[in-house]
Amino acid sequence: MKINGRARLFGDDINTDYIITSRRKRESLDPAVLRNFLFEEIDPHFAATIEPGDVIAAGKNFGCGSAMEVAVTAVRGAGIAAVLARSFARTYYRNAVNNGLYPLICDTSRIREGDRLSITADDRLRVENLSTGEVIEGEPLPPALLPILHAGGLVQYLRARR
Predict the structure, then answer these.
(1) Which residue of 16, 17, 57, 140 pairs with 111 in a disulfide if CB–CB is 3.0 to 4.6 A?
(2) How does strand 82-85 pair with strand 102-105?
(3) pTM to 2 decimals?
């Protein structure tokens, strides 16, 4: 898997209500609608600035808080294929995999807002910061999860195995 994109920077302990406030899931569960409210609690204008291929780069404990799956749905609906973080809340990590969002663990401390990244994630994780020339090695994805992610999520994976 290879992703090229622009880094969108967030800090530590980004909880699911920061990603998408729970009141929005009462309005719609459509990813195309939810994308408009992505990170609105942190920056009400953030969703309008997303470009195709953007990648979230965050600190530790990304996706903490509630287990609401809509926090992954909104990210995927915005066209974001991967989140780089120092660590993930366990439930968010699994929801990400199940929905085809790559949760990638690496040191994000030297990534800056807007840096251009080239990410390779299969049997190893390699993040090349094209803006600085730095290469970051991260934790490889567990081999058992790769087929699910490559299929686009758990439902697609199971459908293909019928």
Answers:
(1) 57
(2) parallel
(3) 0.94
Mean pLDDT of 71-90: 96
Given phi > 0 = left and psi -120 to 50 = alpha, else beta, which region is 107?
beta
CB neighbour class for 13 (10 Å; exposed up to 12, middle 13-18, buried from 19): middle
Q: Is pLDDT of 162 > 90?
A: no
What per-residue string of b and e applies to 20-51 under the rule 16 or more CB within 10 Å gives b? bbeebbeeeeebeebbbbbbbeeeeebbeebe
Question: Do 62 and 96 touch, CB atoms closer than 8 A?
Answer: no
Does the pLDDT at position 2 exceed 90? yes
Taking only the tens place, the pLDDT of each residue in 123-136 is 899 999 999 999 99
